[in-house]
Write a structure and sequence with these properties.
By secondary structure, the chain is an alpha/beta fold. It has three domains: 105 residues, 2-Layer Sandwich (Nucleotidyltransferase, domain 5), CATH 3.30.420; 87 residues; 141 residues, no CATH class. Helix content is 48%, strand content 15%. The chain contains twelve helices and nine strands. It has a five-stranded mixed sheet. It has a two-stranded antiparallel sheet with strand order 6-9. It is globular. The two termini are 47 Å apart.
């Protein structure tokens, strides 16, 4: 049965896909170039015998390709391109990359990206739409302030964006061309904000369909928007066996460095007492989830409540404010994961347990 296993690496592009097929012994069986069309891909796979294992890198077309292949092969691994160091070494071409992907799949050296839940697909797209419009709104606001500052016009706060005093701000711009540019930015801001509000309503209406929505909203300062993003990005909590795995996914895990951990002393193996060097939070993470938990921790550290008390206790122990906020963010993330798994609402007693 082992000889019938085939490992398929795909280097996916907009119009073509380079494919390399290896057998169980690692021998190259076939290389081909396919059109990036469902019919061409499925015809190729149906022509192969045996148990098929397929891999390709996360990218623009990875969700579509995963949904296409998952019902036709034994395993689909969407891998993280940031961790495929082998692809950067030596010569590079589409065929070489496809073969290297197949080799990494056969050796079980790929870091998979989760693509296993279709029930949240609608919410994921709505959250992505809302997040994009939010980024566009922030970008336009930044351009407006940059325009005023370029002519030494003080514009701190949110007053330059509102409609009530908009004409007063435009009158401070003397050059006609600059005033016209500012007016176009205001028109763009109004249009994007209208779309953003509509996207928010649609996103919240969809998120209310999930039973876990009310449980997560019971955690202080998560709120409807942050909860919607959390559900869309995590999808299912059982993906993460422990809170530390969840922290790493959210960018809240500590990266450490250590070397020469053991040594022989008088013929006995002993562990070295050298301190472990901490190199900050992990860089490879989901940025949306990091913003969710750090935003909730920042809000909780300002307003009164049980989370503020947890934050103040950290400060009383001599922890710096920025590190105390990270600790609070880790605590909120751990509570969200455990409440989601257990199907329970927030209880302030959870803050007394060791979770960060």
């Amino acid at each position: 049965m082992k000889s019938t296993i085939k490992y398929i690496g795909m280097d996916v592009h907009q119009s073509t896909i380079s494919v390399a097929v290896l057998d169980a012994e690692g021998k190259l069986v076939m290389q081909s170039i396919l059109a990036t069309h469902a019919a061409a891909i499925l015809d190729f796979l149906h022509g192969l015998r045996g148990t098929l294992h397929v891999t390709f890198e996360e990218g623009t077309q990875s969700a579509w390709l995963y949904d296409l292949l998952v019902q036709h092969v034994a395993e689909v691994v969407v891998c993280n391109p940031r961790k495929n160091a082998l692809l950067k070494a030596g010569n590079k071409s589409d065929q070489i990359d496809a073969r290297k992907l197949a080799e990494l799949l056969r050796a079980d050296l790929l870091s998979p990206v989760y693509h296993g839940e279709n029930s949240t697909r609608i919410l994921k797209e709505l959250v992505r739409s809302y997040s994009t419009l939010t980024e566009d709104t922030t970008r336009i606001m930044g351009r407006l302030k940059a325009l005023y500052r370029s002519h030494a016009i003080s514009c701190a706060g949110k007053k330059p964006y509102g409609k009530r005093h908009r004409q007063e701000w435009l009158q401070q711009v003397q050059q006609p061309g600059l005033a016209s540019r500012a007016q176009r930015l205001y028109d763009q801001l109004d249009a994007v904000q209208t779309l953003r509000r509509a996207a928010k309503r649609e996103m919240l209406a969809e998120s209310h369909k999930y039973s876990v929505y009310r449980l997560l909203c019971s955690i202080p300062y998560l709120g409807p928007v942050r909860t919607s993003i959390l559900i869309a990005r995590v999808q299912v909590p059982n993906r993460f066996r422990t809170k530390r795995q969840f922290w790493a996914y959210c960018g809240l895990a500590l990266e450490t460095r250590n070397s020469a951990e053991y040594r022989f002393v008088k013929g006995q193996l002993q562990r070295s007492k050298k301190p472990v060097f901490i190199r900050g939070l992990n860089l490879n993470h989901n940025h949306d989830l990091k913003n969710v938990f750090k935003g909730a921790a920042t809000a909780a550290s300002i307003h009164d409540g049980p989370l503020r008390q947890f934050y103040d206790r950290r400060l009383a122990k001599g922890i710096k404010p920025e590190l105390a906020r990270v600790t609070l963010a880790r605590k909120i993330a751990a509570m969200a994961l455990i409440l989601w798994k257990k199907g329970e609402s927030f209880d302030p007693q959870y803050l007394m347990s060791q979770a960060a």
